[in-house]
Specification:
Layout (H helix, E strand, L loop, with lengths): L1 H11 L5 H18 L6 H25 L14
Helix pairs in contact: 2-3
Length: 80
């Protein structure tokens, strides 16, 4: 069971675009901290981090799935 879970995570990881997700999470955290100064509550910051991570990763995966036909390599139409 545990091995199967890690296999699924391994397959989904490239779909999250980890660099883009990290940048968006950092931007969201910075925006929150600049608007809510001082932001010293660790529980709030961890909750914000994980909720941003989950929502950004999920929306990125859904976007990759929705636009899968756009990302396909072009067909070679010159042989027709």
């Amino acid at each position: 069971m545990k091995k199967r879970l890690f296999e699924k995570i391994r397959l989904f990881w490239p779909l999250t675009k980890s660099l883009q997700t990290g940048l968006l999470v950092a931007t969201g955290m910075a925006g929150y901290m600049s608007a809510r100064c001082p932001a010293h509550n660790l529980g709030t910051m961890l909750g914000l981090f994980f909720s941003l991570l989950a929502s950004i990763s999920g929306s990125t995966i859904l976007n990759m799935w929705w636009d899968r036909d756009i990302d396909l390599p072009p067909q070679n139409w010159s042989k027709k």
